[in-house]
Amino acid sequence: MTAAAHAKLRSAQARKVREFVTPEGVDLQLRIASAGLRFGALVVDFVIINLALLLFTLLMVWIGFAVKGGVAEVVWMLGAFLLRTFWFIGFELGSRAATPGKRMMGIRVVARDGGRLTADAVVARNLIRELELFLPLMMLGVGAAEDMVSGWTLLAGVIWSLTLSLFLLFNRDRMRMGDLIAGTWVVMAERAKLDSDIAAEAEAGAIRFTDAELAVYGIYELQELERILRARDPRAMREVADTIRAKIGRPVAEEDDVFLLSYYRQLKARLERGLLFGKRREDKYASD
Amino acid sequence: MQPVSAAELPAFSTSRFRAEREADWIAFDLLLTKLERKGAAALTSDELLQLPILYRATLSSLSIARATSLDKALLGHLEALSIRGYFLVYGVRETRISRIRRFFRYDWPAAVRAVWKETLIIALVIILGALTSYALVASNPEWYYNFVPEEMSGGRDPHATVDYLQSTLGHGKAAADEQNSGLHVFATYLFTHNSQVSILSFALGFAFGVPTMMLEYYQGIGLGAMLALFSGKGLGVDFGGWLFIHGTTELFAAALSGAAGLRIGAAVVFPGARGRLEAAADAGRTAGKVMIGVILMLLVAGVLEGFGRQLITDTMLRYAIGTVMLLFWLAYYYIPRREDVA
Description:
The structure holds 2 protein chains of 2 kinds.
Chain A: H1 3-15, E1 17-18, E2 30-31, H2 35-66, H3 71-92, H4 100-105, E3 107-111, H5 119-145, H6 151-165, H7 177-182, E4 184-188, H8 211-214, H9 219-231, H10 234-248, H11 256-276
Antiparallel strand pairs in A: 1-2, 3-4
Chain B: H1 14-38, H2 45-68, H3 72-89, H4 96-114, H5 116-139, H6 144-147, H7 150-153, H8 162-168, H9 172-177, H10 183-203, H11 210-232, H12 236-269, H13 276-311, H14 315-334
Helix pairs in contact in B: 1-2, 1-3, 2-3, 4-13, 5-11, 5-12, 10-11, 10-12, 10-13, 11-12, 12-13, 12-14
């Protein structure tokens, strides 16, 4: 990757970050959830809703044979309506503000103004969903039912309704129509487990690197190295170790993991020292 | 992990920072998990007191880590923990019960009052629709077929006999023979169907309110055509009673759902001094409250239509119930109350 590509990658990530300052004055830097995650969450929710509906229907059919008088029918109709309309509303009103699908994708609903997510906002954003999903289907249904509608008219109708449904692709905050009207957006809220501190372990038999050998890399490379070390894949470690050895001109003399861990610790210490002095070197292309 | 003695390390190191603070983060994580699983009621008073302290400790750790640490796993964990903590600590300030009570006592009628202009407009649109079709059908009954689709009319068309029409209103011989067993099924069907239409009429509002008004006009058209048909056969008063018992609630709810949609459309077109997005969000919240109310009203209307109308066949009693319901809704929504001042 070139320096320009790196800068582009970083600015693309920065575009997804929204300032969100807590009353304590800390910016939480919320990241907007991508359209793909949103769609994935919707699919998961749909599968669960339909499975629940299927089980519920079977149960009610079974009860319907046992009990006469249409009680099962009433319960089924009410149950299906409640499930469809209040699945999203019910879960998003909970403390995690996310349906099971959203939880699985690690995203949640947040009020855009930073305040508390109110029930009316949740209701508004989810009632609009009915329309966003329903309108393209209805367009298709009307077109199929009435022969006088030509293929082109049908296509135009479906495309028009899809622009409403796919509204979130056309704005950088990834807001649906419902989000727009309810004053909400959907942000990343995944859980990150606290991994062990690989830089803190006692250094026995560590390799010493000179300052010139450490000066070739920046923060981006350090964090990529961290990722490799945490994944513990021997082939990737071998490849990275060889690249570093070639770059700093060292012979292959020790085990890859020992070499990489020593290099990681000393590079991290060097860059963090720089950080304390107000010097943040983003990647290897930045000046030292 | 082997502990490192303080003497070997420099005065400040990110490893030492982490070793000192880690216990707080783990405690905060456990507390949040408990809060999410079991709610605030499950926490002891000691844990409740710990919550904000641990929250602030985590937030301060995040600030320090951002400025000094390059450990991505650490930064990611602290960021996720702080976000999770923020929304739990600042999220809910009220119990569910008090939220529900406030909704019924104040929020719902206040939201309905706030859209009174839109409600009037939608009511006029429905009446206009009804008048249009009434005038047309009264002058030439053949118009009826254009307004009411065959599957909806169920034989209630200009060629039907007076006896048949009367039977559809629950009077006469045919109705008496009918079993009452299917009523609750019918009521439930009406409720779910009407709710979906209302939700649609609300949701269409953001397209500048035009589709909402069309949908409401169309509702009025069907109403007027039926009215013209029955009054043409001298059954106008009976039909009124048949309609009135649940119609006051149902049509009121329909008008409110249209008004909620129109409010959003109007806010998008005329945002005033605020930004367009902000205006839409404000309107959306008011409309959301109105819509919860609309679904509850439709539930009442479904019960009145499915049970009340089928079991009560006396026209005067039907009018009386319809009027009482209308007065109840009007009083509930529009009589000013003390909370308004606050």
